[in-house]
Specification:
275 residues; alpha+beta; Immunoglobulin-like; 2 domains; 4-stranded antiparallel β-sheet; 1 helix; elongated; signal; IPI
């Protein structure tokens, strides 16, 4: 009888141990599943941000600067980016350490949320044109351009997630007209990238001898070169430019200047912005 009782007690302990082990295993499995779910969610959200490609450019115009933002959605799904106010971007232009232009200065923005949905494989662009009240001094300027969404999809974005800093070379902001108001160069177009460019346009022979040069704000990449004048009326010109890869700047703007002999007439042309 005593042996049966002892056997019964051992069986009970065995059953209790098995249940405890099973419960512990279930709880451990559930915890691992929850942890994996959290990791998968984090990876998915991170992938959303990582598959949004941000670029920013600043290009000198005849009487100012055009700032352009682009956000490309490489995700497989549409993505909605959320801005906390009506201010969707910020631009700061500096000469040395002095702020020359700040987009938000003196402006008021609505406090309502703004949402922009970017379809898969598509992009959203923003553009701001600034015309300074006074002509900017020629030279190198530092640019910081920042897109200001706080969310992409359901993911919270860190401050400065879409920020670009680079330099731009400002040439003389001479108007593309002669002293008496006559237009001498028109319809300039630029194609190409990474050191190989084609510049086309039209020129009037009354400009006289005309030249071009290319620089990056620190070095001349193409020395002064004459553009042949043809005919007695408007004529088309094509300039092919090739810059060796080792001569390209690591980060900066490649500018061409087209000018007459005494440089009283100068047309700046941005060829590329390398980041």
């Amino acid at each position: 009888m005593k042996k049966l009782f002892t056997l019964f007690i051992l069986l009970m302990f065995g059953l209790l141990a098995a249940c405890g082990s099973s419960n512990s295993g279930n709880e451990s499995g559930q915890a691992n599943a929850e942890e994996n779910d959290q990791e998968n969610t984090t990876e998915t959200e991170s992938a959303i941000r990582d598959n949004l490609e941000f670029t920013a450019e600043a290009e000198q115009q005849q009487d100012g600067i055009t700032f352009s933002f682009e956000l490309v959605n490489h995700n497989e799904e549409d993505v909605t980016v959320t801005f906390p106010s009506g201010q969707q971007y910020e631009i700061v232009l500096k000469k040395d350490d002095e702020v020359v232009y700040q987009f938000s200065e003196g402006k008021m923005f609505t406090e309502a949320l703004v949402e922009e949905t970017i379809a898969s494989g598509e992009s959203k662009t923003w553009e701001e044109e600034w015309q300074p009240e006074q002509e900017l001094a020629p030279g190198e300027y530092n640019v910081e351009m920042q897109l200001l969404p706080t969310k992409a999809g359901d993911e919270e974005l860190e401050e400065g997630a879409f920020t670009s800093q680079f330099s731009i070379q400002i040439s003389d902001m001479a108007e593309e007209t002669s002293a008496d108001g006559e237009e001498l160069i028109r319809n300039i177009e630029v194609t190409g990238e990474n050191g190989t460019y084609k510049v086309t346009g039209e020129m009037h022979p009354s400009i006289g001898n005309v030249y071009y040069e290319v620089e990056d704000g620190h070095n001349y990449l193409v020395e002064q070169t004459e553009i042949p004048i043809e005919g007695e009326d408007w004529y088309s010109f094509t300039i092919d430019i090739s810059i060796a890869e080792e001569d390209l700047p690591f980060n900066g703007v490649i500018m061409m200047s087209i000018f007459n002999e005494d440089r009283s007439y100068v047309v700046p042309v941005q060829l590329d912005q390398i980041q």
